[in-house]
Amino acid sequence: MHSEEGGKPDAAVVRDALGVGVAVGLSGFAFGVTSAGSGLTLLQTCALSLLVFTGASQFALVGALAAGGNPLTAAAGAFFLGVRNAFYGLRLSQLLALPRAVRPFAAQWVIDETTAVALSQPTRRSVRIGFTVTGLSLYVLWNLTTLLGAVGAEAIGDTDAWGLDAAGPAVFLALLAPMLKTTTERAVAGLAVLLGLGLLPVLPAGVPVLVAALAAPAVLYVAGRRSPKTVNDAPGGNR
Predict the structure, then answer these.
(1) For residues 121 and 123, what is the distance between their CA atoms, to the nearest angstrom?
(2) b/e for 141-151, b at 16 or more Cβ within 10 A?
């Protein structure tokens, strides 16, 4: 295997991509357990992973349904969490430069992990390899472990009695924590948690997730107000 000039060896890109795909793909088991414990059938659970394939949205949907939320509200919360993938797609479309006929299929794999691997590559060849290997390995493993988790949950019965209802949120937090590298990111996450948990007792299930989305613009607004003025805003600066 070779690489473009200035790029990483293909084998190194494949190794890194497989590492991400396998590590995250195994967490589909937690989704399968959580979904089955929320009352969804095996077919519904597997269909979510096959067709939606974005973990945060899937967990948000089944979590809201488990709490007795309105299906439309639950779906709205899942939708807004998934909107970020559309913005990933805008950037990846430029880097991947795939043939038009392939793009609808590639869009299914535009998620956090494939985007992170692709954006870390120095050349178009390595971007395509990283995206494809991450997407393929993650999609296969996520769906396989979703099936295993759902079947296992049905076999053991009451998932609440085993504490397996906490598996989904625990996995999601484990995936999220390493991504919070700046003060602003930690502030957004902290405020979102406060809003989500604080409003649980007073708002219908699924709605707190929507309100928690306001944490990002709120923190960015405050950060912008506190940032130093630019030279153009200072007295005597250019106008």
Answers:
(1) 6
(2) bbbbbbbebbe
Are the CB atoms for 19 and 117 separated by under 8 Å?
no
Please state the pTM of the whole predicted model.
0.72
Contact 45, 35 (CB under 8 A): yes
pLDDT in tens, 95-129: 999 999 999 999 999 998 899 899 999 999 999 99
User: If you ran DSSP here, which 8-state letter would residue 177 be given?
Assistant: G
Task: Give residue-wise pLDDT tens across range 142-165.
Answer: 999 999 999 988 776 665 655 555
98: buried, middle or exposed (CB in 10 Å: 19+, 13-18, 0-12)?
Answer: middle
- In angstroms, the CA 55 to CA 112 distance is 9
Tokens at residue 204, please? 């219908």
